[in-house]
Amino acid sequence: MSHLLDVPGLRVGHASDAAARSGVTTIVMDEPAVCGVAVHGGAPGTRETDALQPEALGAPVDAVCLSGGSAFGLAAADGVQLALAERGRGFAVGIHKVPIVPGAIIFDLSGPRPDYRALGAASVAAALDGAPDRTLGTIGAGMNAMSAGLKGGLGSASMTIGDVTVAAIVVANPVGAVTAANGPWFRAAPFEVDGEFGGLVAPPDADFATVRTKHSAGPRANTMIGLVATDARLTRGEAKRLAITAHDGMALAVFPSHTILDGDTLFAVSTARAPAPAGPRDHIALGAAAATTVARAISRAIFHARAVEGDRFPTWQSLYGGA
C-alpha cells in the first residue's frame, strides 16, 4: 500500500484513544532531518514552526507530531520529545539531549480530554518498537476527523520520480468537501493511482462547483495538517518551498480549502538519502509530486474512514461503498 513509509529513513507511530475519540500520529526520523513548514490556514495550532524558517537557526528535526485535541493536543509533542530523549535522541546540551519535535493539531474535541503527553509517548513506542503500520482512516490523529458531509481521517500516499521518492501523510479534517455535491466522486480523481480511492469516473453532471462546508463550522472544528517527505537532499529553504507547493494538493482535493476556519499546516522533510534536485526542472517535478501525493492522501483518508458510534457524518464507505 502506497504510504509515507515508502520514503527510506522514516517511521510512523499511532496512539488512539477510542473513548476520547482522539489520538496522535508521530513521524520519527532515523536521523535528524532537514525540515520546512508552510501554514496557509487562518486558524492554526502549531509548535516550533518559527524555528523551521530558512532565516532561523533551527536544528534538524528528530520527529514531527500530528495530534488531535485542539490546543490541548500540543502537549503530545512534549510526550514525543521526552520519549525520544529517554532513548538518547537529540542534540547535546551539557548533560541533556534535546530532541527537536515540531507539531500541529486539528480541532476535534468532542469527548473526554485524554492525556495527550502520554499519547505522544505511546506514538513514539509504536513507531520505534512496533511493526510498520500502514493503516489509514480512523486511527491516530485522524480518529475524529470530519470533512463537509463525510467522515475524515488519516491518509497517506507516495510516488517515485526517477530515483527519488516523495510521499505525504495528512490528517483530513477540513471545513470543505472532498467529493462532488451530488455523488461519490472525489475531486482528486485525476491523480488517483490503481483505484486507491474507488476508481470512480465522474459523469458530466458531477457537481464540483457548489460550495459545501461542515454544518455549524467553527474555529474549533476544522484543520488539515500533515507532512510531505522525500529522500532527495534539500536545504531548509528548499524544504519550505516544497511545503508551500504541497499545499496545492489541498486545493486539488478539497473545496473550499485554506479558509479562515482551517489551520492548514504542512511540514516538509528531507531524509537526504538520494541526490539533490539537479536544477529548477527537478524542483518543479518534486513540488508537483508533493502536491499530487497530498491530494491522494486526503482522498484516501476519507475513503478508508470507518464508522464509530457518535460520528457527526457518515463514512464514504457507508454511503458509496458499492458504487
Give helix and strand order, one letter per element, not per position.
Answer: EEEEHEEEHEEEHHEHH
Name the assembly state: single chain
CATH class equals: Alpha Beta
CATH topology label:
L-amino peptidase D-ALA esterase/amidase
Number of strands: 11
Q: Unreliable runs, pLDDT <50, ≥5 residues?
A: none
Distance between the termini: 22 Å
Largest sheet: 9 strands, mixed
The overall number of domains is: 1
Report the helical percentage. 10-25%
CATH superfamily: L-amino peptidase D-ALA esterase/amidase
Please state the CA-atom Rg, rounded to the nearest Å: 18 Å
Strand content: 15-25%
Q: How would you classify the helix and strand content by structural class?
A: alpha+beta
User: Counting H and I runs of at least 4 residues, what is the number of helices?
Assistant: 6
Shape: globular
Overall CATH architecture: 4-Layer Sandwich
Present the secondary structure layout.
Elements: E1 10-17, E2 22-39, E3 46-47, E4 61-67, H1 75-86, E5 91-93, E6 96-98, E7 103-105, H2 116-129, E8 153-161, E9 164-172, E10 225-232, H3 236-246, H4 248-253, E11 265-274, H5 280-304, H6 316-320
Parallel strand pairs: 4-7, 10-11
Antiparallel strand pairs: 1-2, 2-4, 2-11, 3-7, 5-6, 8-9, 9-10
Describe the structure using short key phrases.
about 325 residues; alpha+beta; L-amino peptidase D-ALA esterase/amidase; nine-stranded mixed beta sheet; two-stranded antiparallel sheet; about 25% helix; about 25% strand
Structure description:
The chain has 323 residues and is an alpha+beta fold. It has a single domain (4-320), classed as L-amino peptidase D-ALA esterase/amidase (4-Layer Sandwich), CATH 3.60.70.12. It is built from 6 helices and 11 strands. The strands form 2 sheets. Strands 1, 2, 3, 4, 7, 8, 9, 10 and 11 form a 9-stranded mixed β-sheet that branches. It has a two-stranded antiparallel sheet with strand order 5-6. A hairpin with a 2-residue loop joins β8 and β9 (164-172). The longest helix is centred in the last third of the chain and has 25 residues, at 280-304. The protein starts with 9 loop residues before the first strand and ends with a helix. The model has no long low-confidence stretch (mean pLDDT 94).
